[in-house]
Amino acid sequence: MKQRGGSDEAKRRAGESAAEIPEDGDVVGLGTGSTAAHAIRSLGERVDAGLDVRGIPTSFQSRQVAREAGIPLTSLDEADPDVAIDGADEVAPDGALIKGGGAAHAREKLVDSAAERFVVVADPSKEADALSHAVPIEVLPDARVPVADAVRSAGGDPELRAAERKDGPVVTDNGNLVLDCAFGEIDAPNALARTLSVTPGVVEHGLFVGLADELHVGDADGVEITRY
Ligand SMILES: O=C(CO)[C@H](O)[C@H](O)COP(=O)(O)O
């Protein structure tokens, strides 16, 4: 599994802390990435010990990790999540996030925003005073050029995400492409999020503003929890 950001130990602590939250009967949104995978495995250990939960995966990867961990799965067709646990690429002090380093942000936003309680898991390298990470935008393949033009008009610098072990672009679980769009420091994430959301051809962008309820940050000493 790809490692982005800080130490795996810090990610594991954050994931284990969040995995303590679900209770018997809960439906749990299962995020994508290396930190969320720690939470899924830890939740799987609780399932082994008798906890009765069902998970809603946010990607091919999280579905695989959950199956290996023995977590029964369901979907948004059947239930709304009580809790969603997911990672982030950058976290601002007010809980605004940039996500999509794993190109899973469309399904992540769907599941995380449907959850009663959205818990973010991260290592300290993800915390920032202001959002400035490139914003991943999932686009319909035919919309790559017009969306890139719209991003430039909004002050951004779009770059088509290239695959690492395939010639050509990353193709998402939904069959779309990803533009990583650098905007520098983002002063008004809400306004940018609205602009991107109404751009034709944008499937979803990685700005998650006003969605996170709680942040668990692991480090060498333990876990710091912030509630928004
Ligand atoms: O948004 C995501 C995937 O689309 C991930 O949650 C984000 O990239 C963080 O990943 P990691 O925990 O591996 O650092």
TrEMBL record:
Judging by the UniProt lineage, the source's domain of life is: Archaea
Catalytic residues at: 108 (proton acceptor)
The catalytic activity of this protein is classed by the Enzyme Commission as 5.3.1.6
InterPro entries recorded? NagB/RpiA_transferase-like (IPR037171), Ribose5P_isomerase_typA_subgr (IPR020672), Ribose5P_isomerase_type_A (IPR004788)
Signal peptide span: none
The record lists the catalysed reaction(s) as:
aldehydo-D-ribose 5-phosphate = D-ribulose 5-phosphate
Annotated region (Disordered), positions in chain = 1-32
Instruction: Write the record's keywords in alphabetical order, separated by commas.
Output: Isomerase
One molecular function GO term is: ribose-5-phosphate isomerase activity
Its pathway?
Carbohydrate degradation; pentose phosphate pathway; D-ribose 5-phosphate from D-ribulose 5-phosphate (non-oxidative stage): step 1/1
Residue ranges with Basic and acidic residues bias:
1-15
Q: Name one GO biological process term.
A: pentose-phosphate shunt, non-oxidative branch
The answer on whether this UniProt entry bears the keyword Electron transport reads no
List ligand-binding residues for substrate. 32-35, 86-89, 99-102, 126
- What is its biological role? Catalyzes the reversible conversion of ribose-5-phosphate to ribulose 5-phosphate.
Family per similarity comment: Belongs to the ribose 5-phosphate isomerase family.
Complex formation: Homotetramer. Homodimer.
Extract the HAMAP family matched here. Rib_5P_isom_A
Name this polypeptide is given? Ribose-5-phosphate isomerase A
Q: Which organism is it from?
A: Halolamina litorea
The gene coding this protein? rpiA
